[in-house]
Amino acid sequence: QSSCVHLPSRPVGSRCGTVGATPRSVGSPRGKMDAATLTYDTLRFAEFEDFPETSEPVWILGRKYSIFTEKDEILADVASRLWFTYRKNFPAIGGTGPTSDTGWGCMLRCGQMIFAQALLCRHLGRGWRWTQWERQPDSYFSVLHAFMDRKDSYYSIHQIAQMGVGEGKSIGQWYGPNTVAQVLKYVPGPSRPFPG
């Protein structure tokens, strides 16, 4: 049961978000969000010792890296991307609809990831890096909250699926890339910009 996570650590909670909640931080509002968001045993990318040995550059979202001299930078860049994936047991879409997007939500999740990355770049800059033991900016948490799998989150699967009805897609029906792009174009966002 996962929705969005951060690479590379092993999360332990239950919704959408980032890794790195510490026991002391769980009582705070942000700590509760962290604790509620850690659900997916990720690829543990940072544990891989067997990066391919190639002289070809590694490109990540327009940034060029060398596998030989910039491994830590590659890991930090990958760990700073949001990852949205299938989830089950979220509140029913439309009150009586699906509670899982397994089998139909892959393109919606891809659209969420692309849009979330754009928001992070817009509000934090392309050079921003998520670090496990540092407090993240308020705008980071605002972006995370906007994608939580709840009907009141701006870019939740609930909002996207319901807006898809206007594009001729039933809730629970698979979307192609154009459909998810068209739907995201019309999903109403926050009336005020994210903080930070």
UniProtKB/TrEMBL annotation:
Residues 1-32 are annotated as: Disordered. Residues 72-186 form the Peptidase C54 catalytic domain. It is an enzyme of class 3 (hydrolase). Pfam families: Peptidase_C54. It catalyses: [protein]-C-terminal L-amino acid-glycyl-phosphatidylserine + H2O = [protein]-C-terminal L-amino acid-glycine + a 1,2-diacyl-sn-glycero-3-phospho-L-serine; [protein]-C-terminal L-amino acid-glycyl-phosphatidylethanolamide + H2O = [protein]-C-terminal L-amino acid-glycine + a 1,2-diacyl-sn-glycero-3-phosphoethanolamine. Cysteine protease that plays a key role in autophagy by mediating both proteolytic activation and delipidation of ATG8 family proteins. Belongs to the peptidase C54 family. This is Cysteine protease. GO terms for molecular function: cysteine-type peptidase activity; protein-phosphatidylethanolamide deconjugating activity. Keywords: Autophagy, Cytoplasm, Cytoplasmic vesicle, Endoplasmic reticulum, Hydrolase, Mitochondrion, Protease, Protein transport, Thiol protease, Transport. GO terms for cellular component: autophagosome; cytoplasmic vesicle; cytosol; endoplasmic reticulum; mitochondrion. GO terms for biological process: autophagy; protein transport; proteolysis. InterPro entries: Papain-like_cys_pep_sf, Peptidase_C54, Peptidase_C54_cat. It is found in: Cytoplasm, Cytosol; Cytoplasmic vesicle, Autophagosome; Endoplasmic reticulum; Mitochondrion. Its EC number is 3.4.22.-.
